Amino acid sequence: MGVAVTRIRTAPPRTVRSSAEAFPDTIDSVNTRRAYTIAIGKTADQLDGRGPDGLRAGIGPWQR
Q: Of 57, 58, 51, 47, which Cα lies nearest the Cα of 14?
């Protein structure tokens, strides 16, 4: 009795930033896409630990 094994392919894991960049492409409305892009970018910055200037907040060169 033979058994067939099928490999399940999974997508590579996404980072917060790559997900934030990919999501707006799924929105059709231009105004909604613009608003969501701004909000999602700010949220991704918060989750990544970046400050408003785009640099890592509170991390000195000795902590990298």
A: 47
